[in-house]
Write a structure and sequence with these properties.
Order of helices and strands: HHHHHHHHHHHHHHHHHHHHHHHHHHHHH
Number of strands: 0
CATH topology of the domain at 39-152: Serine Threonine Protein Phosphatase 5, Tetratricopeptide repeat
CATH superfamily of the domain at 39-152: Tetratricopeptide repeat domain
Largest sheet: none
CATH architecture of the domain at 39-152: Alpha Horseshoe
Shape: extended
Strand content: under 5%
Oligomer: single chain
Number of helices: 29
Radius of gyration: 31 Å
């Protein structure tokens, strides 16, 4: 049976995209993401130290912690007013000066944030040092100073602050190294961060967490020999450590050593067959290797062991859908509804399953339950197409037109959907007028020009069809779709066969494996009387 999702490209992308994203989310090679809520262009720049990524604590008011001396009050007020007026240079100078002669760490923290926002690294470093001096046990202060020192080439100072966190921090060593990685992968100079990590590991040669973190950092920098060496050392110090076993396989996979990555995971799983985390990692690896049936079998085992694990159920549902097992996938998606996991996605795929069964009523019912979000627009388009298939053309068009008004950013896509519905029932004149109205304000839209060219050819308006396709090619001479359409039209509807051949040959140069182009080449060769070439 042909895989259900192979007949539904949109579903293939969504489903496999999810599973491959799961691989990325669970692999230890991924770059730690910035905290939720960051705003682009604010102090949370890609290389901002940790303290610059959190809301500032309020600066002290008079009578709080210490009395504000006139000079201190002046600097704080000057800093705030200058900041509000966009004078970051003045604000930075004022706050860093205030931090020098107050013992309140909040002022130093505020000075650091403003200096980072102003991209004043020298003053940011001074503020971070002052903050650490006032709050030596503050994790964010130490991390910020380490990041700024590293960026300033002060590797020893960075290392000392990291060491302090490892020795005195409340977090476990593993958590501290995780935080450190989040810091280091943001730094643009990977050579310097690796050198720092090498020194840190040299101080803790028997700490598997240190070697593991070094392996991850090296993998992020694509320094594969270092990554391989360090993950092996981590495993020597802590045998059968699942996270390290997964990382080791991922390092091989990233280098293209698929067979080795697979063998390593199989051997690890043979030693620890009951480890759920390891089996889940193996299942994700199989998806990455395009062994979807193998991955499905692994997820079946995982679901049997943990029937209420939403991620496992969802993954198995998607893989069952790809395998064409509609009944199984339907049951699994309904289980997700009971679990309250990936509910919107479950509605979408249940609608798709019903649609595959030609059950329009239930397909529309499931699609209609989808709320605003990832699948909402796609579901509305599917509903419109189902309404049109049921002969409710007016209802379908009204839905699409309402959507165009509500979502102008998707207007072109929705217009093309409406046009395809109209041309699909041979309402070519209506489709032609629809496209023409849009092109009055968007005359160079290649997709709409192409769509109008096709319906124009159906209406025997070959001059407009040719005109639209040539307009596309004027802007994009290598547009294979337009080249092929123009060549085929000239071969099929005119006697300009030599000209048609040139267009189709150029299209074939761009997309030699496209069935539509191959078909056009056969047709034009037939028209030219080259029967042997036509058969080829």
């Amino acid at each position: 049976m042909t895989g259900f999702m192979s007949k539904n490209p949109r579903l293939v992308r969504v489903a496999l995209g999810f599973l491959l994203a799961s691989v990325a989310a669970c692999t230890t090679l991924r770059q730690p993401q910035p905290p939720a809520g960051e705003e682009e262009g604010a102090v949370t720049t890609p290389y901002a130290p940790p303290a610059a990524q959190k809301p500032p604590r309020p600066v002290p008011a008079a009578g709080e912690k210490e009395q504000l001396a006139p000079a201190l009050m002046y600097d704080i007020l000057l800093g705030e007013i200058a900041g509000q007026r966009g004078r970051l240079d003045v604000a930075t100078r004022a706050y860093v000066e205030a931090a020098r002669y107050t013992n309140d760490p909040r002022v130093a923290e505020r000075a650091l944030k403003i200096a980072v926002f102003a991209k004043d690294q020298e003053r940011a470093l001074a503020a971070a040092r002052r903050w650490v001096a006032l709050e030596p046990d503050n994790k964010e202060a130490r991390q910020s100073l380490a990041a700024l020192a590293l960026r300033s080439g002060l590797q020893d100072e960075a290392l000392e602050n990291i060491e302090y966190l490892i020795e005195h921090g409340e977090a476990t060593p593993a958590q501290t190294y995780q935080s450190l990685l989040g810091l280091l992968v943001r730094e643009p100079d990977s050579e310097q961060t690796l050198a720092l990590m090498e020194k840190l590991v040299a101080r803790h040669p028997q700490d598997p967490d240190a070697h593991f973190a070094y392996a991850r950092l090296a993998a992020h920098a694509r320094q594969w020999p270092v990554a391989e060496r360090e993950v092996e050392t981590a495993l020597e110090l802590r045998p059968d450590w699942v996270a390290a076993l997964v990382l080791r396989a991922q390092i091989q996979l990233r280098q293209g050593n698929k067979e080795l990555a697979h063998r390593q995971m199989v051997e690890a799983l043979q030693r620890q067959p009951d480890d759920t985390e390891l089996r889940a990692a193996y299942a994700r690896l199989l998806v990455d290797l395009d062994d979807l049936e193998g991955a499905r079998q692994q997820y079946r085992k995982l679901v049997r062991k943990q029937p209420d694990n939403g991620q496992f159920v969802y993954s198995l549902a998607l893989l069952s859908l790809e395998a064409g097992k509609l009944d199984t996938s339907e049951k699994l998606f309904k289980r997700l509804l009971k679990l309250g996991y990936q509910v919107q996605q479950a509605y979408y795929y249940l609608g798709a399953i019903a649609e595959e069964r030609n059950d329009r009523k239930n397909a529309i019912r499931w699609y209609s339950r989808i709320g605003k979000g990832e699948h909402w627009l796609e579901a509305q388009i599917r509903i419109a197409k189902l309404e049109a298939d049921a002969g409710r053309i007016k209802t379908a068009r009204a839905r699409l037109q309402k959507l165009r008004q509500a979502q102008p950013q998707n207007a072109r896509r929705l217009l093309l959907v409406e046009g395809s519905i109209l041309s699909g029932i041979d309402w070519n004149e209506e489709a032609f007028q629809l496209y023409s109205r849009y092109l009055e304000s968007h005359p160079d839209d290649a997709d709409v020009l192409y769509a109008r060219a096709l319906v124009a050819e159906s209406l025997d308006r070959l001059d407009i069809a040719e005109q639209d396709l040539l307009r596309i090619l004027k802007a994009d001479p290598d547009n294979a779709r337009a080249l092929n359409a123009l060549g085929y039209t000239l071969a099929d509807r005119t006697n300009r066969y030599d000209e048609a051949l040139l267009y189709i040959q150029k299209a074939m140069e761009k997309t030699p494996d496209d069935p539509a182009v191959i078909d056009s080449m056969g047709w034009v060769q037939f028209k030219l009387g080259n029967l042997d070439k036509a058969r080829e």
